[in-house]
């Protein structure tokens, strides 16, 4: 009976010890999960204070660049190309031969005119001698005044015909020069779409000769913005990466509207000192109408969900030293470099969270770090 009693007492003590251990472990676990402050720890995040900066009120259009110093080379005569003296990309001086059109037919015409001129020259010499002989006889009273007048008329006719033939010869010689197409100015030869053996007309483009230098941007502005156009408005040439390649100002506004596109043509001169732009290149031209003040936030701090833009802002909790993350819906404007213009949703002075946004939830405690 005593043995049974001792066994019962030992089991009771073991059960009491296990219960006490469980209570101790539970208290220790809760103590580890609850900080001394009484709430969960905040996640350290980098923040950037939003500041109002000047933002351009601008519109972008597709524009075309045209050279102010580009000459389109077209023949002044018809015929078959027999020789091409240059290659695309060659630098040439003014007067340098570019292309030759078969001149044989024109050379034959010049030769024929020169022969006719030589024959007429002989007639003119005979008419002069005849006039001088008649003049001498008239002085001696041998011939009548009528014969004298006839001799003078023959000489005048021969002289007039000689001058006409001289003019014809010069005209045909000038025409012969057109069969060798030359550069009208110094520059760089462009593409040569024709080949030896091709037959060309006066409407065939042979090549171009461009002088490196200034270009003009031809910008077609919709009629809705025509009332805002004025001389001197800033125009920016924008590259594919959004960077500004060149700055200019409107130098021409067309007084007419294009009937087919209902746009107004404006021009802006572009300095092209480093040859970064090319003749006939399509570009993005940004016309700056004015400026306004709006905050900007880094693109990496903005997320997009179902077409809506969001960003997290660190807000002070009850005016104290603790902060929570608040997700703000944004109205986005222009892209300025690596930043978005924010038209609504963030005010100047807000602490925009720029790191760890993928791990944040609305209302999560955070520790802002500059």
Model description:
The protein has 370 residues and is an alpha+beta fold. It has three domains: 43-53 and 293-369, conserved putative lor/sdh protein from methanococcus maripaludis s2 fold; 59-69 and 211-291, Elongation Factor Tu (Ef-tu), domain 3 (Beta Barrel); 77-189. Helices cover 28% and strands 39% of the residues. It contains three helices and 21 strands. Strands 1, 2, 11, 12, 13, 14, 15, 16, 17, 18, 19, 20 and 21 form a 13-stranded mixed sheet that branches. It has a four-stranded antiparallel sheet with strand order 3-10-8-5, with no helix packed on it. Strand 18 (323-336) and strand 19 form a beta hairpin. Helix 2 runs antiparallel to helix 3. The longest helix is centred in the N-terminal third of the chain and has 37 residues, at 104-140. The radius of gyration is 46 Å and the shape is rod-shaped. It starts with a helix and ends with a strand. The model is unreliable at 1-37 (pLDDT under 50).
Number of strands: 21
Tell me, rounded to a whole number, the average pLDDT.
84
Q: What number of domains?
A: 3
DSSP helix count?
A: 3
| Multimeric state | single chain
* Main β sheet profile: 13 strands, mixed
Shape, per Cα inertia axes: rod-shaped
Strand content: 35-45%
Structural class: alpha+beta
Give the helix level as a range of percent: 25-40%
The whole-angstrom Rg is 46 Å
Distance between the termini: 77 Å
Order of helices and strands: HEEEEEEHHEEEEEEEEEEEEEEE
Low-confidence stretches: 1-37
């Amino acid at each position: 009976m005593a043995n049974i009693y001792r066994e019962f007492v030992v089991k009771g003590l073991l059960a009491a010890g296990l219960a006490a251990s469980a209570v101790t472990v539970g208290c220790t676990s809760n103590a580890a999960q609850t900080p001394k402050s009484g709430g969960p720890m905040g996640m350290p995040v980098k923040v950037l204070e939003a500041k109002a900066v000047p933002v351009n009120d601008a519109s972008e259009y597709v524009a075309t660049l045209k050279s102010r110093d580009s000459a389109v080379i077209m023949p002044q005569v018809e015929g078959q190309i027999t020789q091409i003296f240059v290659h695309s990309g060659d630098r040439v001086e003014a007067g340098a031969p570019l292309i030759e059109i078969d001149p044989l037919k024109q050379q034959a015409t010049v030769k024929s005119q020169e022969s006719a001129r030589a024959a007429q020259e002989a007639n003119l010499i005979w008419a002069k001698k005849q006039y001088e002989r008649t003049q001498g006889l008239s002085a001696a009273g041998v011939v009548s005044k009528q014969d004298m007048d006839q001799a003078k008329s023959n000489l005048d006719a021969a002289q007039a015909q000689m001058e006409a033939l001289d003019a014809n010869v010069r005209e045909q010689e000038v025409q012969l020069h057109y069969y060798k197409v030359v550069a009208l100015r110094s520059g760089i030869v462009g593409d040569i779409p024709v080949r030896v053996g091709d037959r060309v007309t006066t409407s065939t483009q042979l090549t171009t000769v461009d002088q490196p230098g200034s270009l003009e941007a031809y910008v077609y502005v919709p009629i809705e913005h025509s009332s805002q156009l004025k001389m001197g408005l800033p125009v920016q040439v924008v590259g594919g990466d959004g960077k500004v390649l060149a700055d200019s100002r409107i130098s021409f506004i067309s007084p007419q509207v294009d009937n087919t596109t209902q746009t107004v043509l404006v021009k802006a001169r572009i300095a092209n000192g480093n040859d970064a732009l090319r003749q006939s290149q399509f570009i993005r031209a940004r016309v700056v109408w004015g400026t306004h003040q709006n905050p900007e936030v880094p693109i990496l701090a903005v997320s997009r969900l179902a077409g809506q833009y969001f960003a997290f802002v660190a807000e002070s909790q009850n005016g104290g030293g603790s902060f929570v993350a608040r997700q703000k819906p944004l109205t986005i404007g222009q892209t300025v470099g690596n930043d978005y213009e924010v038209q609504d949703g963030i005010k100047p002075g807000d602490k925009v969270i720029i790191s760890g946004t993928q791990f944040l939830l609305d209302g999560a405690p955070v520790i802002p770090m500059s």
